[in-house]
Amino acid sequence: MVEQMAPATAEPLVRHSPETKWYDYGDLECTEQLTSDLNCFNSIEKQAEILLKRDCELQWQMQSKKNMTETAWLSTILTRGTARDKVTAMQILTQRHPVHSISYVAALVNNVAKKNAREAFSVLGLLKDLFINELLPPGRKLIPFSARPVEKINLSSLDKDFNMKRKLILWKFESDLKTVYEKFVAAIERLAGENIEKLGILSCRYALELLIARAEQEQKLLSLLINKLGHPNKTLATRVCGYLLQLTRKQPLMRHIVAKEVERLIYRKNISCCTQLHAVSFLSQMNLHGCDPTLASTLLNIYIGLFRMLVFNKKMDDKILNVLLLATNRAFSYAKGDVDKLIKEVDTLYKILHQSSFSTALQTLKLLYQLLTTSEGISDRFYAALYRRIMDLQHGTNVDRQLFSLLYRALSSDTIECRVIAFVKRLLQLSLCRNASFAAATLILISRLTESRPSLLITKKTADFTKFSNEAKTEAVDDDEEVYYDYDSSTETVNAETSLTSTFESNDKLISDIKPCGKKVFGWMHKNNIVVRSTATTYDPMVRNPLFCRADKSIVTELILLSMHYHPSVAVFASNLLNVSGKCKTDFQKCKTFIRAYLSAKQTLL
């Protein structure tokens, strides 16, 4: 009907200006209620398709009249040109007249959808640029024809209503463009799953650029990228992790959506540990802010759920546990209100602490310190675990900085002096068999601690030997040891009742001296109820609990050996501590003279 009434010399209803985009004059009218009359809807859609096809023909005829040479050349290229020339011609036509070039865009997408990796590789970038720069609107999604208010269209009066015809053409073009773009996204997803690493990385990068630039098909593109975290090619999975971080930085409002999608991936059935590792590694690097505690709380829930799942399935892999604990430490700093969620996992954390490698144990200790600081306070159990685990530090590890940071915070907040002295003794003993950097860090740590508490460093000059001597004279029998006496036959049954009564009285007196007074102790918080036994006078480095190693009964003889250390800085630091100067000198200004003299000598030789 429309084709018969439109003359061959008519002009197209939709005219495109090079200074504008098609969506600047596009129609945004839509409805949420679908039409109930499917026959009427199909008729209107078919009529819109005819109008769009006719308008494309009119546009080609008008272009031929204006520039016959160029039009003939483009027609020749499109029919008999090489593949690269055809792509170039389609690109030119699409940029000039996007509404009338939807068939060329569909042809390019079909080339990508084919199972020809080389041809797809050459067209992929071109289509990406066309969709971003020419076809997709920046501030909204494409509207399908089914969402248009077709009830307002009157087919009987359509022949005379040119504005309504133009509106139908734009509706149909936008609907077809949405279909073509969906096919293009599906082709990118297929290419990203190919065994060719370079093609997969390129497809994921283009998917990222489309997702950042335009909102159309964002859910499919986001799922595409997140699913590639489980790609068997580790290089591709790592690259996708970086792409997702770029997405969260450039589109911060999408961080919650991305976190939820990654959560679905983590809890998917039959998911590999490698995929979970990449997912947690990505989440641990997301930008967090104090003004948005909701995201931190969401991440913390993901970490706790994965933590429970790993413990339940007995998949205690050190690599994923280390990353998981590191991520939990970071998220917990921004979600202080979720302490109760982690308190339930304290026993499991201590179990991991004693069974994992040192790096994983250190992350566990950092998490426990944060957790206990914000809840009930640092427990004796924590200090005992820290005291034991520092013995497991291996040579050449890269966790010294984190270890000393944790030690400084934990020991500075400890109010029991004898326990801090025990840590000082153990660190000095480790410094004798570690490298120079560890020894220097230990001495600087001790110097910082003794600035406010000088009594922590018991040297030969500051030790009270009279007190030690008096305690040695009054040394009593330890309550955990039994004492045996030789049998004396001369007094075997004399005054048995009196002897038995006196024994009970002495035992009651001994028990009353040993047991803590007050309420019965529950849990691991003993620091306010412990009665330190002052009868022992010797230091025992093998005791597991630093409260009972009696480090305050010895002097720091290790400093004498460190003062003779081969490294000059360590020797100076130790000598200053022995001389009770209170600080380790860290002034290296004198090195400038040495460096200047060294450089002058080199120049003289040259």
From TrEMBL:
Domain CCAAT-binding factor: 361-574
InterPro entries membership: ARM-type_fold, CCAAT-binding_factor, CEBPZ/Mak21-like
Gene Ontology cellular-component annotations: nucleus
Domain of life: Eukaryota
Family named by the database record: Belongs to the CBF/MAK21 family.
The name this protein goes by in its record: CBF domain-containing protein
Organism listed in the record: Brugia timori
